[in-house]
Specification:
Blueprint (H helix, E strand, L loop, with lengths): L3 E2 L10 E2 L3 H26 L1
Antiparallel strand pairs: 1-2
C-alpha cells in the first residue's frame, strides 16, 4: 500500500513510502474505532 511519495526528496531516499505491517495493523485498528464511534453517534442521533 502506497501512503505517500516525495518527488523532491534527495536521490538516496526511496521515492515511495510503504508502511510496515505493524503500522498497517495500527491504522486498521484506528479506522475500526473511528467507524464504531461514528456508527454509535448516528444511532444516538436517531433516538
Amino acid at each position: 500500500m502506497l501512503l505517500a511519495s516525495w518527488p523532491a526528496a534527495p536521490d538516496d531516499w526511496p521515492r515511495l513510502v510503504h508502511p510496515t505491517v505493524h503500522q498497517m495493523l495500527g491504522l486498521c485498528a484506528a479506522l475500526t474505532v473511528a467507524t464504531t464511534a461514528l456508527d454509535l453517534s448516528n444511532r444516538l442521533a436517531e433516538v
